[in-house]
Amino acid sequence: MSAKKKNPHAVALGRRGASKGGQARAIALTSAQRSDSARKASEARWAKWRRERGLE
Questions:
Q1: Is 0.70 surpassed by the pTM of this model?
Q2: Cα distance between residue 41 and residue 36, in whole Å
Q3: Average pLDDT of the residues in 12-30
């Protein structure tokens, strides 16, 4: 099975967009929205941790 090579130009464009995306999202969200999003992410990570260990 041969590995597909990525187009370096497409990779560079993707990186440029990705680096701007997080900053734009952070600016657009209010402090309360960012906090809520972070809380939900944390709860999801802990729920996954518990499920993997059979604690839930």
A1: no
A2: 9
A3: 85
